[in-house]
Write a structure and sequence with these properties.
Elements: H1 3-12, H2 27-39, E1 59-60, H3 67-72, H4 74-86, E2 90-95, H5 122-137, E3 142-147, H6 152-161, E4 172-176, E5 179-181, E6 183-184, E7 191-193, E8 196-197, E9 199-201, H7 206-213, H8 217-222, E10 227-232, H9 243-252, E11 256-262, E12 272-276, E13 279-283, H10 290-294, E14 306-315, E15 330-334, E16 338-339, E17 345-346, E18 353-357, H11 360-364, E19 370-374, H12 377-380, H13 393-402
Parallel strand pairs: 2-3, 2-10, 3-4, 11-19
Antiparallel strand pairs: 1-12, 5-9, 6-18, 7-8, 10-14, 11-14, 12-13, 15-18, 16-17
The structure holds uridine 5'-triphosphate.
Length: about 400
């Protein structure tokens, strides 16, 4: 694409201002901006008014595999999981492409030090947990790490410096997720520099399409990986590829296994697993009707009782059928750093525009079947979203201490 073509592309969608500083740029910066215009999908901007994903189908309960069953079948589930892991059929994928804006650190979230008397990094906690399974099964599980162009270099440099916290480097594959443009509340694109349109990672469902674009789905096929455990960077207690979860998902013969925790209270603000028009889905807390809130299962327990924790084991052979076009695009209000009319960088303290994201939970809804698998909240769920308060560094530290982790 040349300058005239790039200019026309942006003029056609009313975004010519991205070339405001063009004449001041070096040749290299000019080419970079034209390349960004060429490569970016701006069609997302049309979605601002649509409120995508708002139309919902008919909800019905989806039974979870609960602790009593897991305990009764522990050996059977564990053996099936260990066999699959030892046969190299499972991989893990760390979602580390997010911006972690709520935590407020400029570094990638995984670099955050949550230690008190010694350094304990978020990445370290996650890798240590995965290493437990590596040791138990004597198998180096393939670990994919998804970054974004914003945090890739810092993430790789940090993990190299820390010697991957003991993980075998040749079993790790990094890839960058795709980016989406960001705009103000009127749909006008922000510029993050004179030569660059503001972009942000395209949501945590970006992992599969980004992986395919990077040609990495070949590794899944070549290595015979049948299951991939996708997990968030910020839950410092989570178990990854733990044999019972792997075994339960395989034996249930489902498209995906989802770790869930029992709701702390009927009105707790978490999305819960359910069926929507007969397919697995997640109903948000504010979508639960009075009737759904009071519905009971066969044991007399609440029928919509299990919240998701962003840890899913996907059957890889079904992923190719999951397509971006069928997934809703979430238009989210966020704080977007940008340059002002004087070309100065502004870091807003309040949301000032929209980002566009696709979410993993919408991938689940494209699959035929799902096993919600109950884990104990206090043992496996310590998310770090904020510096203090709910789901914070403070609350995670308390939970880590309860689980005997030295900080
Ligand atoms: P969150 O939804 O908490 O978003 O991500 P975030 O970007 O980390 O944090 P905030 O909202 O800006 O404070 C849940 C998980 O999904 C990953 C994150 O890295 C985290 O592991 N994620 C999120 C991605 O990998 N890519 C994205 O585009 C968004």
């Amino acid at each position: 694409m040349n300058y005239e073509e790039a200019r026309k592309k942006m003029a056609d969608i009313g975004q010519e201002h991205v070339f405001k500083y063009y004449d001041e740029l070096t040749e290299e910066q000019k080419s970079a901006l034209i390349r960004q215009v060429e490569e970016t999908d701006f069609s997302v901007l049309k979605r601002i008014d649509k409120g995508a994903g708002d139309e919902r189908g008919a909800f019905a309960p989806l039974a979870a595999m609960q602790r009593p069953e897991i305990i009764a079948r522990e050996k059977e589930l564990h053996d099936a999981g260990v066999a699959a892991i030892k046969a190299g059929k499972t991989a893990a994928l760390l979602l580390a492409g997010g911006m972690g804006t709520r935590l407020g650190s400029d570094d990638p979230k995984g670099m955050y030090n949550i230690g008190l008397t010694k350094p304990v990094y978020i990445f370290e906690r996650i890798i240590t947990n995965l290493l437990d399974v590596v040791k138990e099964t004597d198998t180096w599980i393939r670990l994919f790490i998804m970054t974004s162009e914003k945090n890739h270099d810092a993430t790789v440099k940090f993990l190299k410096e820390k010697n991957f916290f003991g993980y075998r480097e040749d079993r790790i594959v990094f890839f960058r997720q795709d980016m989406a443009p960001a705009c103000d509340f009127d749909g006008k694109l922000y510029m993050e520099a004179k030569d660059r349109i503001s972009t942000s990672p395209n949501g945590n469902a970006g992992w599969y399409s980004s992986m395919v674009r990077a040609g990495l789905d070949r590794i899944l096929t070549d290595e015979g990986i049948e299951w991939i455990d996708i997990f968030a960077v910020d839950n410092v207690l989570q178990r990854i590829c733990d044999p019972c979860f792997v075994g339960a998902t395989i034996l249930a013969d489902v498209s995906v296994g989802a770790k869930v925790v029992r709701k702390a209270a009927p009105d707790e603000k978490v999305g819960v697993m359910c069926l929507e028009d007969g397919r697995p889905s997640i109903v948000e807390y504010y979508e639960l009707s009075e009737e759904m809130m009071n519905a009971k299962d066969a044991n007399g327990d609440p029928a919509y009782n299990y919240g998701v924790i962003l840890n899913y084991l996907f059957r890889t052979s079904e992923l190719a059928a999951v397509t971006d076009d069928r997934m809703p695009l979430h238009v989210v209000k966020k704080k977007i750093p940008h340059i002002d009319e004087n070309g100065e960088l502004v870091k807003p303290s309040e949301p000032n525009g929209f980002k566009f994201e696709q979410l993993v939970l919408d991938m689940i809804h494209q699959l035929a079947t799902c096993l919600p698998y109950e884990v104990i909240r206090e043992k496996e769920f310590a998310p770090i979203k904020n510096p203090t308060g709910i789901d914070s560094v403070e609350s995670a530290r308390e939970l880590l201490k309860l689980n005997g982790v030295e900080l």
